[in-house]
Amino acid sequence: MDHRAVCRGALEAKGVFREPWLARAFDAVDREDYVPDRAWVPERDARGTYRFIDRGVDREAWRRAVWDPHRSVVTQMDDGKTPPTGPALGDFSSSVSAPDIVFEKLGHLELGTGHTVLDVGYGSGCHTAYLCERVGQARVTGVEVDHDLAERGATNLKRAGFAPHLVCGDGLAGVPERAPFDRVISTASLHAVPSAWVEQVAEGGLILTPFGTAYENAGLLRLRVARGVARGRFVGSASYMWLRGQRPPRVLDVAGECVRRPSPIDPDQVLGGGCAQAFAIGLQVPDASYSHRGEGNDRKVQFVDGTGTSVAIVRYTDWWAGDAVRVWGPRDLWDEVVRSFTWYQARRRPDITRFGVTVDCEGQRFWLDEPDRPVAL
């Protein structure tokens, strides 16, 4: 089977080739040049581990995974601590992203042939190759924080005939010696736009990045830079791994007794409203993360703040009872989440594309529809 042709047809049907250069770049860049022989796909097998693909064992299954139009190929787990030797459990730390979201994202970049581009987190090099096809390799700079990934990506690009300027370093710092850039594009998610990116973008240039909060990592943000201020809206949804320097912390340092009280609302109304609702709530409580535990009558949801000093556990069953909510620490996280939910509902559940971000010398602010309408509790 011609898996590449199947992938191209699916992308055409989905409408992601919004500009002619995108289809040309797809045809020119062979995705197989950038996927290692051994990798994982983000689906679990019967044992609960992530399915492993090995080109040497089953080339057809490997090619089918490489050209899956809607699914990424995981090339690294746990920052390289988990070797690619078989099915595994772990945290994804690098991938060759799914073709549909790659071309969806590139379609928002407004990339002209004369533009200079900074590619943050070049990883395998596949994304960088697409950029080279559009603007030429001399105008592309890539930065990758992981030494092993940086070497592998550089090797892939060289073997495929591309020679962009590549740097192994912290992408959050940009590459000042190559600035200014007309475009900065990130292949990983962040929760705070670095001031270095704003400073290194040319007047009128764009920053395009996946963006999320500890609560919900699901936005694709496009900012235009003018007079040292970056401002723009979310142009859609995107779920990417975190940039390593902005991974939400995992700490728990709770002291003291809990306070018990009823919940004012069924937790399922707050937690079961879908991605757009969760994203809007997260913009108001960006450092709060949540996880579920238990099944049936024992099902609960736990919230933790970024410092790990405030925790709330909410029971789904009999949520109106006096002990349904237990709160530790200085913040009542369930109260904050419920008030954020109420705010979102009262504004008739605005779509993610109505939210925006401003980044200037005073920091980062979220807004709804217009910059003078802040999103805040």
TrEMBL record:
| SUPFAM superfamilies from the UniProt entry | S-adenosyl-L-methionine-dependent methyltransferases
User: What is the protein name given in its UniProt record?
Assistant: Protein-L-isoaspartate O-methyltransferase
Which keywords does the record carry? Cytoplasm, Methyltransferase, S-adenosyl-L-methionine, Transferase
Decide whether keyword Transferase is in the record.
Answer: yes
Stated family:
Belongs to the methyltransferase superfamily. L-isoaspartyl/D-aspartyl protein methyltransferase family.
The gene name on file is pcm_7
Which molecular function terms from Gene Ontology are attached? protein-L-isoaspartate (D-aspartate) O-methyltransferase activity
- Give me the Gene Ontology terms describing cellular component: cytoplasm
Task: Tell me the GO BP annotations in alphabetical order.
Answer: methylation
EC number of the protein: 2.1.1.77
Q: Where in the cell is it found?
A: Cytoplasm
What InterPro entries does its record include? PCMT (IPR000682), SAM-dependent_MTases_sf (IPR029063)
State where it is primarily located: cytoplasm
